[in-house]
Amino acid sequence: MLQRNGKYKNMNGASRALRVALVGAGKMAGCHLQALSRVQIPHTVGAVYDPVLGRAEELARQASAKAYGSMGELLEGFRPDIVHVCTPTGRHFEPASEALRGGAHIYVEKPFTETGNEARALLELARQRHLLVCAGHQLTRDPAFEQLIAGARHLRPIVQVDSHFAFQPAGGPVHRVSRSAQASQLADVLPHPLYSLIAALEALGAGEENIQVTSLRTDPADVHAVLRAGGITGRLSVTLRGRPVASTLTATGEGGSLTADFVRSMVIGSANPGTGPLEKVLDPIVEGWQLGWRTAIAVLRRLRTGIDYPGLAELISAFYRAVVEGRQSPVEPRHLLRVTEVYEGLVANLSAASQRTTRSHPTPRPGAPAAAPAGPLAVLTGARGFLGSRIARHLAASGYRVRGISRSPDHDLPHVHEWLQADLAVGTPSEAFDGADVVIHAAAETSGGYDAHQRNSIDATRNLLRALRDSGVTRLVHVSSLSTLQPAALPWERLDEGTRLAQNPRRLGAYTWGKTLAEGVVTSSAGAHGVEARIIRPAALIDLSEPELPGLVGRRLFGRWHLGFGRPALPIAVCDVDRCAAVIAWCAIRFDQAPPVVNLVDPEITSRRDLLRAFRAKGWRGRMVWVPIGGIAAAYALVRSVMSIKGGASDKLAVWSILRPQRYDVSVSRSVLEVVRRDVSLPRIRVERQLTA
Predict the structure, then answer these.
(1) How big is the CA angle at 645 (ends 643 and 648), to the nearest 5 degrees?
(2) CA angle 343, 95, 86 (to 5 degrees)
(3) Which of 191, 217, 237, 543 has the maximal Cβ count within 10 Å?
(4) What are the residues whose beta carbons fall under 8 Å from the beta carbon of 488, sequence distance 6 or more?
(5) Per DSSP, which regions of 269-427 are E strands?
(6) If you write DSSP's letter for every residue of 601-626 in order, what string do you get?
(7) Per-residue model confidence as pLDDT tens digits over 531-555
(8) Please, what is the end-to-end C-alpha distance for the chain in angstroms?
C-alpha cells in the first residue's frame, strides 16, 4: 500500500523505487550499502557525498552511483527521497538538517545528535515538513532484542534491566592513548548500550515515565550509571578496559531473568524464578545447553550470511516501509529525544573526567598545550600513533618543539606542543611547516583496502612533498617499512639498504602496497622539490613492555594459545617501538650524520625463538602451535578458489612471499643503534640506554 498522495508512484500509477543518497563515505556508509542489498523495498542508491571527494568516488563506484562535490549539488541534482547520514560522530546535525530542508527523509547514524537542542531542532523541522526521521538504533531490530522483549513480558513485574558493553578499541590497549582519546572512543560506542537500555525500559513498562539518571560514575574509559524509569531500575555499564568483548542486555523480574547476547545474536535464560529445588539444579544445565547449541547456530549463521551488523538491514527496511506507506518511523521521536538528552549528560561527564588532572595522569587542558621549549621546531605527522607518540617524546626530551599534524588533534599528549588539524590526503597548507627545522612523516594508513591506502599513504605523501616545496623546508625523515623490499629469490640471500623495492607490491597486501608506492614517491620526487630525505624502514614493531605477537609470526587463538607461522628456528625481523622512535628522532636531530636509508632491525632478535624468549623474560605466558607456512599458503589458495567459484574473490595475495622469512644484512642497523646509544649529548638517549640495558 503506497502513500495516498502517490508520491512514490510513477506517471503510470505504478510504484517506483525510492531514490537513496549516502552522505559520508567511511566504513559505516559501506556497511549501509551492504545492508541495502538485503532490503526488499524497491530503492536505488544513486548519489554519494563526502567532503573528501576521493572517498565519495570510491563508494560511488561500489554503488554504481554518482559522487557529488557538495551537499547542495546532491540535493539539487539527484533529489533523493531518503538520505543516509553516515558522517563521523559530531557531524550529523548539519547534513541531516540540510537533507530535511531539501525534502528528504533522513536515516542518521548513531549518535543521532550530540545535544538535546539539536535533536529537538531536527525533529521539529521534520514535523513541519511531514518527513520521517530514523536513527541507527539497529540493536532494537536484532532478533535477540525482539526475543528478549517478548520473553521478558512473561517475567513481570520487571524490576531491573542491565546493559553491559565491553569494547576493544582498534590500535591495542586503551592506556596507549590519552585520556581525551579514550573519552572520545567511549562516547562513540556509548549510544548502542544506551539506546538499547532505554528502548527496553520503554517496552517493558516505562513508556510514559520520565527516565532519570540517579547515579553516575565516569572516567575516560568507563561509564557506570543507574537510571530510574517508574518502578524499573536500569543499570548501564560501558568500558573500554573490560574483557571479554561483550554486548548484553538482561531483563530481571519476579518471574526470572533473560539475557540477550548481541555478539552472538541470541537469548539465554531459563525464565523461571529459580527458587524451587529442581530449578536451582536444572537452571545452570539448561542455560549451559542453550549457550552451547545457540552459539553454534549463531556462528553458522554468521559464516553463511557474513552480516556484520545484525538488525541494520531490518531497521532500514522498516524505515523504508514506513516512508512508502506513510506510517510512523520505527524509531519514535520521543525515544530519540530521551536517548539524546541522557547521552548529552553522560558525554559531558566523560569530557570532564578526561580533563581532570591526577598525580598519575597529568594532562593539560584541551587547547592548552604543554610548555614549548625554545629549541628548533620539528613537524611530525602521525603524532597520535603507536610510533608517532614515542617519536614526539624523544624529540621533546632533546629540546625540540613538536608540532603535530592530524585529522583529530589530541591536546592531552604532553610531548606535542602545538597541533595543526589537517587531512594530508586532501592537502596541507604550506604554512603548516613554517619555521620547521625538519619534518618527520610517520603518518600512514594501517587498515582498509587499496583505495584507503592510496589516499592516506600515497596521496598524503605526495601532498606533503608539495607543501614542503612551497614552504622551503628541505629536510624530511620518511618512515617507511621493511616490507617494501623485493622478497629474496634465494633462501640464503640477504636483503640490505640497496635492495630494490617490491616490483609487484599489490600482491603483498594493501599495507605493503601503500608503503612501497609512498616511498617511491619520496625517492623519485623529493629531489625535484628541493627536499633531502632520510628513509627509515622499521621491521615489525613490538612493545617489550606489552608483548604481543607481530602478525608475521602468528595470531592468538584462545586464551594462552597462539597459532605460529613456520617453526621456532625461522628468522624474524623485529624492532622495539621505543628503540625505533629513538632512531627516527636521532635521524631528525642529527640529519647530516644519518644514513640515507636504514633498514631498522634489532640485531639481537634474529629468530622466532629469540623473540619468544624476549617476551617470556617480560612475563609473556603464551603457548605456541606451529603450522608450516606452506600449509597456510595452500589453505589460502583453497579458500580463494572456493570464493572465486561463488563470485566473491578478493585481490590475489602472494601469501608465501608475505609470510616466508627473509634474511637481512643488519650492519647498517647495528651501527646506527650503537651510535644512537652512545650519543649521550641527547637527553633522549639516556631513556634509550635504560631500555636496552
Answers:
(1) 40
(2) 65
(3) 191
(4) 494, 495, 662, 663
(5) 377-381, 401-406, 418-421
(6) --TT--BHHHHHHHHHHTT---EEEE
(7) 999 999 999 999 988 888 998 899 9
(8) 76
Give the whole-angstrom CA distance, residue 675 versus residue 680.
Answer: 10
With 50 as the cut, is the pLDDT of residue 385 above it? yes
pLDDT for 210 equals 83
Separation of alpha carbons 472 and 284, rounded Å: 71
Phi-psi region of 367 (alpha: psi -120 to 50; beta: other; left: phi over 0): left
Report which of 509, 522, 392 is spatially closest to residue 446, judged by C-alpha positions. Answer: 509
Percent of the chain's residues with pLDDT above 70: 90
Cβ partners under 8 Å of residue 21, min gap 6: 45, 46, 47, 48, 49, 74, 78, 80, 82, 83, 84, 99, 104
Q: Is the pLDDT of residue 647 over 70?
A: no
β-strands 256-261, 663-664 pairing: unpaired
Residues 6+ apart with CB under 8 A from 117: none
CB 347 within 8 A of CB 187: yes
What is the per-residue pLDDT for 362?
34
* Torsion angle, alpha carbons of 122, 127, 132, 137, to 10: 50
Cα–Cα distance measured from residue 663 to residue 376, given in angstroms and rounded to the nearest whole number = 38
Please state, in angstroms and rounded to a whole number, the distance separating the CA atoms of residues 351 and 236.
18
How many Å apart are CA 652 and CA 636, to the nearest integer?
10
- Comparing CA positions, the residue from 250, 292, 299 lying closest to residue 145 is 250
Distances (CA, A) of 559 to 169, 387, 528, 562, 621: 19, 27, 53, 8, 10
Give the type of residue at 519. E
Residue 191, preceding peptide bond in cis (omega within 30° of 0): no
**Closest by Cα among 279, 278, 93, 109 to 269:** 279
User: Which carries the bigger pLDDT value, residue 610 or residue 690?
Assistant: 610
CA distance 102 to 394: 52
CA dihedral 141, 89, 385, 500 (to 10 degrees): 80
Q: Are 637 and 629 in contact (CB under 8 A)?
A: no
Helix/strand/coil for 411? coil
Residue ranges and CATH numbers for the domains of the chain are: 18-109 (3.40.50.720), 140-314+347-352 (3.30.360), 377-692 (3.40.50.720)
Cβ count within 10 A of residue 289: 10
Instruction: Retrieve residue 384's grid coordinates.
Output: 597520535
H or E element in which residue 63 lies = helix 53-63
Hey, what's the cell of 404?
Answer: 603535530
Closest of 135, 23, 35, 31 to residue 87, by C-alpha:
23
269 and 259 Cβ atoms separated by less than 8 Å? yes
Please report, as a single letter, which amino acid is at residue 107. Y
Cell 540535493 belongs to residue: 75
Alpha helices in 129-224 (DSSP H): 143-152, 179-189, 191-201
Reduced to 3 states (helix: H, G, I; strand: E, B; else coil), residue 379 is strand
Quick check: 447 pLDDT over 90? Answer: no
Name the β-bridge partners of 266. Answer: 261
CA distance linking residue 545 with residue 621, whole number of Å: 14
Q: What is the pLDDT of residues 415-435, one digit of tens each?
A: 999 999 888 988 888 788 999
